[in-house]
Amino acid sequence: MRSWANRPHSSLLASFLAASWLLVAASPQELHEASGSRILHHTKSHTHEVHCSRERSRAAWKAVDEYLMPFVEKEKYELPSKCRLRPENDMFREQEQHKIHFDVNEWRCGFCKKSFRAEKFIDQHFANRHSNLLDNSQGRCLADLCGALHCDLTMEFKKPKSKCNAAAAARNRHLCESLADSCFPVNQGHSASRLHEFFLRQFCDAHTCNGASKPFPKGGR
After folding, report:
1. Closest Cα to residue 173, out of 162, 184, 181, 185?
2. Which of 23, 55, 112, 146 measures 20 to 30 Å from 122, CA to CA?
3. By C-alpha distance, which of 176, 194, 170 is closest to 184?
């Protein structure tokens, strides 16, 4: 008869042999996936959380860059520091400037030179590996201005049209007019006054439900 003292050793030995057998039986892919899931979990737990849409911020900057900046440059006008449309007030601007687009299916990170097959993957890479380059301070989320800047018209995947909401249109118009006032103060000279009027016509007039005005009537680049 086995003694009671030997039973714990037998149990430990059996557990060790079972674990060893499972390790040998597991395929390399299964081991890799198990390891990868742990790494992914570890990475996610250390990812800096950002409450700002990168996609909508990109659409907002596209609207500014295509439909506003050519006219600002023509006037040789410098946007004031309090203007939220300045490039440095886009928290993703530095990362976006370090995207290198070689071909339809080839993107490269300008920081570490890694390559990716689609823009969404390099966006994920920036979020996971280069989040330290984001300045997530107040007022630097360009996506917050999308209502005023007609982002839905510049996004790659456009939303289907919905019935016009008069209250939302009024809010967007108010935001749009506040941008015109802060970026182009009419008391700052002729260029600022002309650009203030231009901004109202180019972006703000279309915030109505009567359909009389369309966004960007002055054209762009």
Report:
1. 181
2. 146
3. 194
Question: Tokens 């996609």 correspond to what residue?
Answer: 55
Write down the pLDDT at residue 24. Answer: 44
Assign 3-class secondary structure to the chain. CCCCCHHHHHHHHHHHHHHHHHHHHCCHHHHHHHHHHHHHHHHHHCCCCCCCCHHHHHHHHHHHHHHCHHHHHHCCCCCCCCCCCCHHHCCCHHHHHCEEEEECCEEEECCCCCEECCHHHHHHHHHHHCHHHCCCCCCCCHHHHHHHHCHHHCCCCCCCCCCCCHHHHHHHHHHHHHHHHHHCCHHHCHHHHHHHHHHHHHHHCCCCCCCCCCCCCCCCC
- How far is Cα of residue 200 from the mean position of the Cα atoms in its chain? 26
User: How many residues are recorded in the chain?
Assistant: 221
User: Does the structure show a pLDDT above 60 at 12?
Assistant: no
pTM above 0.90, yes or no: no
